[in-house]
Amino acid sequence: MASPAADGPAADFPAADPTGIPVGRGRHWDIRTRLSSMLGNLLDRCEAFLHAHPFERGLWLVVAFGSGIAGWVVLPRANDWIALLLACGGLAIAAVVTLDQFRWSMLRLAVMGLTVMTCAGLVTVWSKSALVGQPGISGPRVIWLHGEVIERREEPAKARARLVLRAPVEGFDDPVLVRVNLPQDKDAAGVVQGAQVRLRARLMPPASPMLPGGYDFARTAWFGGLAATGSVLTRVEVVRLSKRGTTLRGMQSDLALHVRSMLEGSPGNIAAALASGDRGAIAVSDEDAMRDAGLTHLLSISGLHVSALVGAVYWAIARLLALIPWIALRVRVPLAGAMAGALAGVAYTLLTGSEVPTVRSCIGALLVLGALALGRDPLSMRLVAVGGLLVMLFWPEAVVGPSFQMSFAAVIAIIAFHSAAPVKAFMSSEHYGRPMRWLRDLILLLATGIVIELALMPIALFHFHRAGVYGSLANVIAIPLTTLVTMPLIGLALLLDLAGIGGAAWWLVGKSLELLLWIAHFVAARPGAVTMLPPGDRWSFGLFLAGMLWLALWTGRVRLWGIIPAGIAAGAMVLAPTPDVLITGDGHHVGITGGGADLLVLREGRGDYMRDNLLEIAGMEGDLRTLDDWPGAHCSEDFCSLAVTRSGRRFIILIAKTRAYIDDMDLAAACERADLVIADRRLTYACHPRMLKADRTLLAGTGGITVYLKTGRVRTVAETQGHQGWYRWPEPYKPRSQPSGAMPDAKRSGEPRAGQVPPTLRPPSLAGSPPGGTQ
């Protein structure tokens, strides 16, 4: 048969004949067809995947809500937040327009739901910040405060009390909250909640991170309504006594005092913390031991304590009502037990101060009781998701805090581990005899502890830069001891105290807490009990959380893909480099790593706060050692010089010790020989180091900085802060006078001006390094 192209108009156009196409060359519409087919197949697979996991889809909506909150905190400016909202809105519209609602209905709904929840999370935290955010005072000041005591918290271990006052402060139209430390020698009778007092205090703005990766108290104070913190300088004068009756805070304080009167020493202090949430009397050595042993969570009223109380009340009321036939036949016993447990949980939460972690735990316990009353599974991911969503709606700022992350990570890890197919098979397998069942339960308990430790350790290292290695082993004994022995004994002792016969019960409480403290000190003293790491990057922590959520929230083999990003992130966190030089925002404190087990510092400081911050950011367990005592440093009355060697290169560091006048010629000569110059004052234009001049002018805009000499990287506090409101960005420094025709010092030395991030350092060549001591 002849080709149709042989006749008619098409015969004059060879391109119309398919046989005229060169071999190996395809039409462009064929390529588009293949790409469209590949994309369609991919979307079909996603649709089939979503259809195969109907119970896990809703969990990711809560994750998206939390991601929107985290995005608001991480992104620096309002333009970025608006861009994220527009991007999510555009993605949702694109899904509606391009995805066939019949072929890809689940995928279409998933994209729309995730984008809407992300926007909802961002708007929620943005709205709360605008409504309740409290700016801090402009700078340090010493003023008289005349206001009402809102809260008083005792801290006997530090010989002080902590007051929160609502008082007028210059610069604010309305009275604001101020938190001050009240030493015992300046205290007075009647300084309680509701009293009007007058005192003189030295106030500071809420502190931003001292160094990159440090704790951001300014953000906590912004959402907590605190405008300043400080210390009392004079004896407090009570202007008017409190007219309030017995308050919840007063009941908490009275309960703590009663417990400590019945049980002395460290066991009494810990018993008071478990009963009332008052941790102020716990000795620093005991608290450090509990932290290094991974048992700190036992000291804070959280999920363990609330769950133990609610469960005990639920079990006791249900068993008691079941023994009375007339009630058991007319009342739903599980519902009555759930109501009693709920009331006990709410009362315990209020009595212990209604802290956010306690309220969060109470909400979770109430959800579990509701599930039990309805006959539903009380431990499910959907229940955890509902609890997390409720917490984020009221306290969205908690998402980026360690308490929220660690508490929910522990619960999610437990549920995910016990819902895994191998664990279910192990639990359902036949084990003959009671010893074998006990062995199985012990193996599961130990395995659960290890899983929780693996999930929580990266979170603890990211926020606190230290974590206990043997926490899973210690918790195997400590958690049952606290939940099944200590807390029931405390409750029994308090009940017996109503009749004045609680002495024996308190003796048993003391012995159980002595055992708990022995476990903590024994585990903390083991070699390698504590691991410390320097701060890692945000991307690695975010990648770890994403991988762990993928591993926990999906079911089946697809969940194993989460191990890859989690493993990469964990490796990046472990391999995070240690900073070589640490400089606080005021330039007054400097730390240099590489001096063996000790951190070399310019000056030690007067308290443990500075010491702990420097060691944590350096990722070190040792102690501080001043440069005056270091043989490799050369110190005079005004400066210390030190030569350090990194990757075969020698770097000369010059650090100012005083603010005394230095001749410009001498200063210029010293700076020319140095690679890094550090000072807590503004240095003149004559100082031009080869790499960086970190004086007051620079540090005023960058905050604390950490320097990595090996790579030339500089991290600053300013680069981790946005424009949400709690970080005060300073104005660029302007010198009072400048010689005619002179170039500003920031430009001449290659440094940024105040408010800018310094550039990457350029390590000098070995030939240009002057001689000096090595480290």
TrEMBL record:
Domain ComEC/Rec2-related protein residue range list: 274-556
GO cellular component term, pick one: plasma membrane
Pfam families (UniProt xref): Competence (PF03772), DUF4131 (PF13567)
Keyword annotations of the record: Cell membrane, Membrane, Transmembrane, Transmembrane helix
Stretches for region Disordered: 726-775
Domain of life from the UniProt record: Bacteria
DUF4131 domain mapped to chain residues: 80-232
Segments passing through the bilayer: 58-75, 81-99, 106-126, 298-321, 333-351, 357-374, 404-421, 442-464, 484-508, 539-556
Protein name: Competence protein ComEC
Gene source species: Novosphingobium hassiacum
